[in-house]
TrEMBL record:
Source organism of this protein record: Termitidicoccus mucosus
Swiss-Prot/TrEMBL keywords: Cytoplasm, Lyase, Tricarboxylic acid cycle
Catalytic activities: (S)-malate = fumarate + H2O
Protein name, per record: Fumarate hydratase class II
Annotated site (Important for catalytic activity): 328
One Pfam family of this chain: FumaraseC_C
Amino acid sequence: MRIERDSMGEMSVPDEALYGASTQRAVLNFPISGHAMPKGFIRGLALVKAACAVANEELGRLPAEKSRLIQQVAQEVIAGRHHAQFPLDVFQTGSGTSTNMNMNEVIANRASQIAGQPIGSKKPLHPNDDVNLGQSSNDVIPTALHVSVAVALHEQLHPALARLHAALDAKAAAFAGIVKIGRTHLMDATPVTLGQEFSGYAAQVKKSVIRVEKAITALRELAIGGTAVGTGINSHPDFPPRVARVLTEKTGLLFHEAHNHFEAQGGRDDAVEAAGQLTAIAASLTKIANDIRLLGSGPRSGFQEIKLPATQPGSSIMPGKVNPVMSEMLVQTCIYAQGLCQMVALCGRDGHFELNVTIPLIAHALHEAVHCLANAARTFADRCVEGIEADPERCRELVDRSLMLVTALNPYIGYDAAAAVAKEAYAQNKTLREVVLEKQLLDAAALDKALNPAAMTRPGEDPGGD
């Protein structure tokens, strides 16, 4: 152990640790969950520190050599080289001050190593005076939250949903000619094509891609420059736009200074908005997963309109059973993500006066939701949707047995007579065709024209069309 000092006095720190006294105090103070701050958040915070160094150098507030060292170490953190040096629990000080100091100390001590100085010497970089120059945890941590979650959305969830959309869209095209029975309220309805059904799923995921983009847009405003309470004390007025410019250049995402720094630090509404978009995405994916597992239910006593790829044995006691495990995985992931997003909404309420004090938990929840949804969507596309096959014969069988084709008779015999036909057909276990012909309500040619299932899937066309 080595001895380091902070404003509260001496602290024993492990010899191999790049962090210092402030971080070690937090390690001892918060042995709560074992969940460290998300790796993506740590990378985002390092990116913010590098951007701040560039801005301070440009403004003449930080010597070029110190700026270069901060950027060099920050890049090492971004590359994942020092992940073990960020041990702090998610459940810590609500501003994230402990994690901010963790980053400041790691950068300073690693710079000491590079410069050939003893760790803890605060030479050539001081964790507060140099690494944290013109900053406060109260503006840096919200900034890192927005940047890191926006990057995760862009790099993880956006491409995963785009992959799922492409897989569903391809199935919609492949199944375009297969007529099946539609269902509302889980009851038989008028026909659709299997392709139309899958086109709806594809459209839902396309909208989910747009929702990711909306979430990124909601996170564009950055709190940096507000420092302690939003007034910008100890910061240069040109500092925030310069930091935002560097972050935009580094990430390829548009960031800008907050329009109002008091809102940017006191509230977390933008994070709640992003969580709302994730909630909608999870709801959409759940609906798709549930429909697909129902369509594949069986193999002999269910719908079985599609065949799902077999990925693993489904039962420890029933030989040969195969379950829709990919749908079940996706549903569970979405339940988890929605719970995390509800957590963000609750955290968003705890902004008292000039600071929200639940930011580490918001970071954990959003990063976890994005990570899990991205992996689940990509896995569902690759291991389920890609291998789905249609069962045209089963689809046709269920169409032929359905009583809801009677809807097409409304223009010919009226609603009341059509309802009576459906009830009689059901009661006597007859087809609609048999009842209509027995009652001489239509001749065979007119009946065939009216009861063409394929034509019913193309609104506005002549019911007698092919």
